[in-house]
Amino acid sequence: MSGILLTNAQANEFFDQCDASGDGNISIQELVKVLTDYGLPQASVIEMFRDIDKDGNKQISREEFVGEVCKKSRKDAVEEMFSEIDKDGSGKISLSEMKAYIENKKIDANRLEELFNQVDTDGSGSVDKNEFTQMIVNDF
C-alpha cells in the first residue's frame, strides 16, 4: 500500500469487499481470495492476516482492519513525503531542502523558518525522520 493513503471510508469499503460471508469479520480464506486475485503471494497475505488479527481469534474485525490499514497508510505516506523532501538522501531534512520543497506552497519564509525550528526539537539544524513523523502525527 506504499504511497496510497486510504481514508476510513475507503478502508471500510475494502473491508466489505473482503467480507464475502457478510458476517462482519474477514477470515483468512476471504482475505487470501481477494488479495491473491490482486496478485499478492499467498504467503504474504497470510503474514498480513496475522499482523492485523491483533486478538488472535483467527478473524479480522472491522475495527482491527480499518485501524491497521489506515495506520500503515499514514506511515507509508509520511515516509514517502520525508524521502521526497530529503533530496540528498542523508536521512535528515535541512532548512534549504524544506524551503525548496515548499517553494510553491506560498508560505512566508520567516514562518517556514519558525516552523522548522519548532520541528527541529534537538536543535541540530536539520529534521530527522523521527522529528518529521512527530510533526505530521501531532500537527496534522
Automatic annotation (TrEMBL):
Q: Which UniProt keywords apply?
A: Calcium, Repeat
Q: Does the keyword Translocase apply?
A: no
Q: Name one Pfam family in it.
A: EF-hand_7
GO cellular-component term (any): organelle
Span of domain EF-hand:
6-41, 73-108, 111-140
User: GO terms for molecular function, please?
Assistant: calcium ion binding
SMART domains given for it?
EFh (SM00054)
Q: What is this protein called?
A: EF-hand domain-containing protein
- What organism does the record attribute this protein to? Dreissena polymorpha (Zebra mussel)
